[in-house]
Amino acid sequence: MELKEFVVETISSLADAIDDLQKKYEPLGVIINPPTAQSGSDVLQVDSSNYSYRRVQKVAFDVAVTVSQETNKAGKAGIKVFSAELGGEVGKADTSSQVSHVKFEIPIAYQESSLESRLNEQKKQERRNRDAKMANRSSKGSYLST
Fold this sequence. Notes:
Blueprint: H1 3-25, E1 57-71, E2 77-81, E3 94-108, H2 114-144
Antiparallel strand pairs: 1-2, 1-3
């Protein structure tokens, strides 16, 4: 399997799993991928609009890859996730390969839970109310100064 394909399949599987878990367990009150507060607190206050920040999580990869150069009619070369394969093909090819160890992380913010959506909407409404009050105060002050 190509390294790119491995990474895409892994992250796709994680995102799909989170979506499936949210749909299955939300009616039971289980929050998958809950929002966090700006303070980074791990204690969730369900009705607090402070908890409206999306978590960024790092998916860490630690894989052995092979870089191989195969000389045949196709002349293909590539980076593949290391795996042992049994079986074979009839044909003649000269192959040289080298196994390397690669570590990397990809930061991801998964889809928000419905709780996070609700808290974000609550936070927007609080902002609109605060802005309306300030605008109302400003307009009253301008009438007094004339």
